[in-house]
Amino acid sequence: MSTWWISGRCKRCFRPVDADWGHPPVINNDTPVSIIRVGLADANTGVDVGTLSIRGDFAVAGRAPGEELSDLALQFGDGIYIVPLGGPLPLTQNAHVFVQAAELQGNISRVHQRFSIVAIPGDFDADGDIDLVDFSVYVDCVTGPAPPAPPTQACSAADLDNDGDVDLINFAMWQRAI
Cα–Cα distance between 132 and 127 in angstroms, integer? Predict the structure, then answer.
């Protein structure tokens, strides 16, 4: 295969990956991942789409980790397939997607992509967006620049600069995250 890529639904999509089962770098997605997008092409002979295999080491649409997902793949464009995940994946570290397909001469290419879904700074309720609910957490936690005590456990996430208070600097950081 001359072209491979895998991506989740993220701000920075269409990442090229090595056609190898090795250990690619972890992609940290800071937005919810609700689809797997796979692109494949072979300029010489073409791809045998019937050999497409997609697996993940996480549960997808009620399926156990490691189960085949290619039957869920929908053609999204020329050589582009998406697998809806049945909702956003939870925060996770080092999840893996494994894809393989053969070109029309029978040569098999494999791609392995590791990714993580990390918390979004300012998304205090961990719902994948920054909105008025998160703002209300900030308002409830404001201490000013010289608090008598560090933020409570419930308010520690609002201390975006980790300086022991929840003040206007944290609000400015939260605004930039919107």
Answer: 12
Mean pLDDT of 105-117: 84
**What distance in Å separates the CA atoms of residue 80 and residue 92, rounded to the nearest whole number?**
25
Alpha-carbon gap, residue 146 to 125, rounded angstroms: 25
Q: What is the pLDDT of residue 71?
A: 94
Q: Which helix (H) or strand (E) holds 117?
A: strand 108-117
Confidence class for position 50, pLDDT limits 50, 70, 90: very high
Tokens representing 73? 């793949």
Q: Could you tell me the CA-to-CA distances from 5 to 17, 22, 24, 80 in Å, in that order?
A: 6, 15, 12, 9
Is the C-alpha dihedral spanning 152, 154, 160, 162 positive or negative?
A: positive
Which ranges in the chain belong to alpha helices (H)?
Answer: 132-141, 168-177
Work out the number of other CB atoms within 10 angstroms of the CB of residue 46: 12
Q: Is the pTM of this model over 0.70?
A: no
